[in-house]
């Protein structure tokens, strides 16, 4: 990644790797599963001249600490994000969340009480039930999948990630996404986070969406195979004043498929929210 995760923050659920670049209002980028902050590189490159971009790897993901018995549920991520914002003394940042990161930023604001200038969610895990058929199958049979040989594990991950994009993923990005989930530490960590899918948390969030009182923008890939576009429409209808923007030619990893369009829509949303 061009923008380095060269700093560390000790959260209540593990040490987090993070970085910051750019100048301007604070924007915090939160990735989803099974990803890391590397997915934001194209967006950061396009917006760093207007915003101070904070990017992090959630506990148990990417370059962050992975521990046996670690709590890696959505509620833990929202709590860790609150702790991060407080430690950085970010008073009213914009929070941008993708996939699990969408539930994380909504939880940080609605449940953890973090003040924000506005929220942007993209292809979000926001409504129950959720999860691809493959992920739900792994969730139900964690021990079996955790024991598969390394080469099968890698192949499964590559095949799964291929369905998250609308066009072939760059080889270097695929490698960067798979590498943290391999080896004696990484492979158990991957299945640990799948086993802790937090369906109850999104149900708690749903009850609070009608009470959101800050600007919310929803970005969604029209070709998302992981979280159906109808979910984006349904979520936007639950949040007062939410604006829904479609991203043509983009799958679930919409910022990877169309980084220029994603950055433009995000920049427009942040500018509109700022006014």
Describe the structure.
The protein has 275 residues and is an alpha/beta fold. It has helices at residues 41-47, 74-88, 100-110, 133-140, 142-146, 150-162, 171-178, 183-195, 199-208, 229-238, 254-257, 259-274; strands at residues 7-11, 14-21, 26-30, 52-56, 94-98, 118-122, 216-221, 243-247. An eight-stranded mixed beta sheet has the order 1-2-4-3-5-6-7-8, with helices on both faces. Helix 10 (229-238) links the parallel strand 7 (216-221) and strand 8 (243-247). Helix 1 packs across helix 12 and helix 2 (74-88) crosses helix 3 (100-110). The longest helix is centred in the C-terminal third of the chain and has 16 residues, at 259-274. The model has no long low-confidence stretch (mean pLDDT 93).
Features:
alpha/beta; 8-stranded mixed sheet; 8 strands; 275 residues; 44% helix; 12 helices; 16% strand; Rossmann fold
Estimate percent helicity: 40-55%
Estimated radius of gyration: 17 Å
Mean pLDDT: 93
The appropriate CATH architecture is: 3-Layer(aba) Sandwich
Q: How far is it from the N-terminal to the C-terminal residue, by CA?
A: 32 Å
Order of helices and strands: EEEHEHEHEHHHHHHEHEHH
Number of beta strands = 8
Number of domain units = 1
- CATH class group: Alpha Beta
Query: What name does the CATH topology carry?
Result: Rossmann fold
Structural class, judged by helices and strands? alpha/beta
Q: What is the assigned CATH homologous superfamily?
A: Alpha/Beta hydrolase fold, catalytic domain
How much β-strand is present in the residues?
15-25%
Low-confidence stretches: none
């Amino acid at each position: 990644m061009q923008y380095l995760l060269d700093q560390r923050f000790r959260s209540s659920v593990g040490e987090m790797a993070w970085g910051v670049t750019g100048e301007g209002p604070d924007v915090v980028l939160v990735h989803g599963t099974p990803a890391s902050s590397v997915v934001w590189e194209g967006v950061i490159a396009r917006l760093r001249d207007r915003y101070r971009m904070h990017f992090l790897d959630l506990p148990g993901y990417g370059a962050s600490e992975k521990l046996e018995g670690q709590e890696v549920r959505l509620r833990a991520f929202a709590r860790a994000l609150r702790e991060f914002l407080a430690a950085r003394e970010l008073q009213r940042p914009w929070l941008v969340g993708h996939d699990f990161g969408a539930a994380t930023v909504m939880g940080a604001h609605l449940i953890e009480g973090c003040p924000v200038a506005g929220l942007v969610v993209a292809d979000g895990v926001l409504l129950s039930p959720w999860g691809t058929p493959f992920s739900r199958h792994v969730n139900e049979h964690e021990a079996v999948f955790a024991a598969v040989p390394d080469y099968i594990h890698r192949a499964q991950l590559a095949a799964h990630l291929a369905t998250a994009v609308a066009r072939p993923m760059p080889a270097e990005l695929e490698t960067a996404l798979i590498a943290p989930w391999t080896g004696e530490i990484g492979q158990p960590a991957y299945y640990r986070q799948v086993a802790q899918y937090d369906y109850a948390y999104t149900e708690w969030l749903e009850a609070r969406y009608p009470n959101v009182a800050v600007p919310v923008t929803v970005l969604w890939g029209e070709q998302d195979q992981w979280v159906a576009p109808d979910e984006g429409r349904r979520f936007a209808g639950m949040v007062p004043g939410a604006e829904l923007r479609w991203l043509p030619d983009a799958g679930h990893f919409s910022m990877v498929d169309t980084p220029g369009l994603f950055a433009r829509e995000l920049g427009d949303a942040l500018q509109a929210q700022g006014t």
